[in-house]
Design goal:
single chain; alpha/beta; eight-stranded mixed sheet; five-stranded mixed sheet; globular
Length: 388
């Protein structure tokens, strides 16, 4: 659902620096007077914070066959010829617990069906942010690191060699795939990199600070989502849009004291007359912001959001209410969001952070048929989720 579901920020350092006079690259005096002064934080003062961004519909929803309640999963399954667009490549499954049947939609083909490889088209939209007269760009070099990472090219992960999402899904459905022998895969296509989007954060919706000596843009999450939505809706419904910033920490909402800041990413879906558009937002983070030991660095947020998109693309998969002893700050949750229970658990491969992910068996409270009988990919839990 988000990169880091909840958390608090420790005591903030005193205010430092004063905005200079108006001029090229600086706000005018009237705007400066209403903007908070820049702050200087130490590494480790920021912790992940929750951000709930439910799916929504804008204008007429796409048509579907049949009647009854339409979830985002069914909206995504628009037959070609009715609403026109090609839908996402998904499969559906279910499990029972506590006398209730829980249904879910995930990316790819059914692992119990014919062996096949599903290739998922996607784009990366680099975003450059200007706030308080300063600009933090997402450079071509950063985009190159992302596109050449194990999110899109094969690496050796626990349980196999392949892309991050593919190995995660294969190890999750290990016994269904004949202990990994069946040629079933869910892979990301080589990303199409779109032209850079430039966002100017208005006064009252963000501020610049330094964390561990690194310039960081703190931006209101709702404003950021609304500002980037046109690029999400411009994509074809079967294409994942990945919005990529650098050293941006989102806030829900942005306030002068930064007490609601700490969001590194989220994913959601929006339906319009063309279909359901799914997307992820994530920031490529310098290790000084959250600390290298947290895994909230470089592509850590993107790995978290990508895995959650694969296992819950329409953000409507419900599961029995769960509680994570590794993330007690989250409280009680009812969403199948694979990264949230194990936020902060990661492996580093070729210098980049890849987050652990909870398997379906952890949420379903069933015996695990995943690789080595695990409940999370990197073995963070020895059993299924506890009730709350």
């Amino acid at each position: 659902m988000v990169f880091g579901r909840a958390g608090r920020i420790g005591a903030l350092a005193g205010l430092v620096a004063v905005l200079g006079a108006a001029g090229p690259g600086r706000p005018d005096p009237a705007e400066a007077a209403t903007s908070p002064a820049p702050r200087r934080l130490a590494t480790g003062q920021l912790t992940p914070r929750a951000f709930e961004l439910p799916p929504r519909t804008i204008g007429p929803a796409p048509r579907t066959r049949g009647a009854g309640v339409r979830t985002f999963s069914t909206l995504g399954a628009v037959p070609v010829g009715l609403a026109g667009p090609v839908p996402l490549s998904t499969f559906e499954g279910s499990f029972g617990w506590g006398g209730r049947t829980y249904r879910y939609t995930m990316m790819g083909s059914s692992p119990s069906g014919a062996a096949r490889t599903t290739v998922l088209p996607n784009t990366i939209v680099p975003i450059t942010v200007t706030v308080g007269g300063s600009t933090i760009a997402t450079s071509p070099a950063t985009v190159a690191v992302v596109t050449r990472s194990g999110l899109f090219t094969p690496r050796t992960f626990p349980g196999g060699t392949g892309q991050y999402g593919d190995v995660f899904m294969r190890t999750q459905f290990w016994t269904t795939l004949g202990n990994g022998t069946r040629n079933w895969h869910v892979t990301m296509a080589t990303p199409t990199v779109k032209p850079t989007v430039r966002l100017n954060v208005p006064s009252g919706k963000g501020a610049l600070a330094t964390v561990g000596g690194v310039p960081v843009a703190f931006v209101d999450a709702d404003w950021l989502d609304a500002a980037t939505l046109p690029w999400v809706r411009a994509a074809a419904p079967h294409v994942l849009t990945q919005l990529l910033t650098t050293n941006v920490v989102a806030c829900a909402p942005y306030t002068v004291d930064l007490s609601a800041c700490g969001i590194g990413g989220y994913h959601s879906a929006v339906a319009d007359a063309r279909g359901v558009h799914t997307y992820t937002y994530q920031s490529y983070l310098n290790a000084a912001i959250f600390g290298a030991a947290t895994g909230f660095t470089d592509i850590g947020p993107m790995s978290h959001e990508l895995a959650e998109w694969i296992t819950d693309p329409y953000v409507d998969n419900q599961v029995p209410a769960w509680y994570s002893p590794l993330a007690p700050q989250y409280g009680c949750m009812e969403e199948l969001e694979s990264g949230d229970p194990v936020v902060g658990r990661f492996v580093r491969i070729n210098g980049l952070a890849y987050q652990d992910e909870a398997y379906l068996a952890w949420f379903a409270r069933s015996a695990s048929g995943s690789w080595q009988g695990r409940y999370t990919w990197f073995d963070s839990f020895e059993s299924h989720s506890p009730s709350c």
